[in-house]
Write a structure and sequence with these properties.
single chain, mainly alpha, 9 helices, disordered C terminus
C-alpha cells in the first residue's frame, strides 16, 4: 500500500513539472511571436537594424521557431548580406512544421543562390519549394530562370574546359617542339665539340710527331748533320788559294794533257822517219 502511495505522489509531481514546462514553452512562444511582430513593423519602415535585433530576441526565446529565422533572413537579404541570409533560411527550413513554411524558406533560399550566381544549386532549391507548393507561379517562374541560367553556365564551363584542353595541348606541342629544338641544339653542340676534339687530337698528334721526328727524316737529318760536321773539319782554303782537291784535280788534268802532247809528238816522229833499205849487194 505504501508503494502505491509513493507511485501516485511521484506521478503527480512529474505531471506538475510537465505542465510547468508546457506553460513556460507556451509563454516563450508567445513572447517570440510578439518580438517577431515588432520586428516586422520595424522592417516595414525600412529600419532593418532594429528589426534584426527583435528577430534575434525572438530566436533566443524560441530557437526552433521558423518564422523568426525566416524574417531575420529577409532582413539580411534586404541589406545584401546573402551569406547570413542563406544560413538563417536553412535554419528556418529545418524548423518549419508546415508545407507553407518550407515552401517559403526554400523559395527564398533559391533567390539567395541566384544572387550568388549559383544557378545549379538554385534549381534544386526551387524544386524543393515546388514540392511543398506546386501551384505557386512565382516559384515556377524563378525555377525556369534558374534552369536557363544553369544551362548557360554549363555551356560556358564546357567551352572554357575545351579551350583549356586546346591550350594545354598547344602548350604540350610547344613544349615538345622546344624539347626537340633543344635536343637538336645539343646534338649540334656535341658534334661541334667532337669535331673540335678531333682537330685538337690531330694537331696534338702532328705536334708529337714533329717533336719525335720521323725515323727516316731523323736519319737524313743526322746524315746531313754529320756531313756538315765533316765539311767543317776539313781545312778551309784561304781566299785566293786553291784547295787541296782543286790542286789535285789540276795536276791530274796537266798530266793528262802532257801525255796527250807526248803521244802526238811520237806519232809525228814515226810518220816522218825515212826507211833505210839494205843492199842486196
Amino acid at each position: 500500500m505504501k508503494h502505491i502511495v509513493l507511485y501516485i505522489v511521484t506521478f503527480c509531481t512529474l505531471n506538475a513539472f510537465s505542465q510547468d514546462n508546457g506553460k513556460e514553452q507556451l509563454k516563450a512562444v508567445e513572447q517570440a511571436k510578439e518580438l517577431v511582430y515588432e520586428g516586422n513593423q520595424l522592417a516595414s519602415n525600412d529600419d532593418y537594424i532594429s528589426a534584426e535585433m527583435e528577430y534575434r530576441k525572438a530566436i533566443s526565446k524560441e530557437p526552433n521557431m521558423a518564422v523568426g529565422n525566416y524574417n531575420l533572413a529577409n532582413s539580411y537579404y534586404e541589406k545584401g548580406n546573402f551569406d547570413e541570409a542563406f544560413y538563417r533560411l536553412q535554419q528556418a527550413a529545418k524548423a518549419a512544421n508546415t508545407k507553407e513554411e518550407k515552401h517559403k524558406a526554400y523559395h527564398n533560399i533559391g533567390n539567395v543562390l541566384m544572387q550568388n550566381k549559383k544557378c545549379k544549386e538554385a534549381v534544386e532549391a526551387f524544386k524543393n519549394a515546388l514540392r511543398n507548393n506546386p501551384s505557386d507561379e512565382e516559384t515556377r517562374y524563378n525555377f525556369a530562370l534558374a534552369k536557363q541560367c544553369a544551362e548557360e553556365q554549363q555551356d560556358q564551363q564546357d567551352q572554357e574546359d575545351e579551350n583549356k584542353d586546346q591550350n594545354d595541348k598547344s602548350d604540350e606541342n610547344k613544349d615538345q617542339d622546344e624539347k626537340e629544338e633543344d635536343q637538336k641544339e645539343n646534338e649540334d653542340e656535341n658534334k661541334e665539340d667532337q669535331k673540335d676534339k678531333g682537330d685538337q687530337d690531330k694537331k696534338e698528334g702532328e705536334d708529337e710527331k714533329d717533336d719525335k721526328g720521323d725515323p727516316k727524316d731523323e736519319k737524313d737529318k743526322d746524315g746531313n748533320q754529320e756531313s756538315k760536321e765533316q765539311d767543317q773539319k776539313k781545312p778551309q782554303p784561304k781566299p785566293g788559294q786553291l784547295s787541296p782537291q782543286q790542286i789535285k784535280n789540276l795536276l791530274e788534268a796537266m798530266n793528262n794533257q802532257e801525255e796527250k802532247v807526248q803521244e802526238k809528238i811520237n806519232a809525228e816522229k814515226t810518220k816522218g822517219a825515212k826507211v833505210r833499205s839494205e843492199k842486196d849487194w
